[in-house]
Design a protein that fits this description.
Elements (H helix, E strand, L loop, with lengths): L12 H10 L6 H9 L13 H31 L2
Organism: Natronococcus pandeyae
Pfam families: VAPB_antitox
Protein name: Antitoxin
Length: 83
């Protein structure tokens, strides 16, 4: 393990339980903290698309949502019409 330094930290019981729930099998708490701390936030993605690209994505999502709703309406109508 080399010259690993260790630090003590204080956590509230709630924070400890939340961290414990995120801990994966075979993972130390240090491993868990390193994994979580390395996760990217959605805010890190802000500004990576040009306005036109973002608008196109929004439109594609809206269209897919509309198709999904239409498909769900058809299935519901079909189920309602069955004896």
């Amino acid at each position: 393990m080399g010259n690993t330094e260790y630090r003590n930290i204080r956590l509230t019981e709630d924070a400890y339980q939340r961290l414990k729930r995120r801990k994966q099998p075979g993972e130390s708490f240090s491993d868990t903290v390193e994994r979580i701390a390395g996760e990217r936030s959605l805010l890190d993605l802000a500004g990576i698309l040009a306005d036109e690209e973002a608008d196109a994505m929004r439109e594609a999502i809206r269209e897919q949502d509309e198709r999904s709703r239409d498909r769900l309406d058809r299935v519901t109508d079909q189920l309602d019409s069955e004896p």
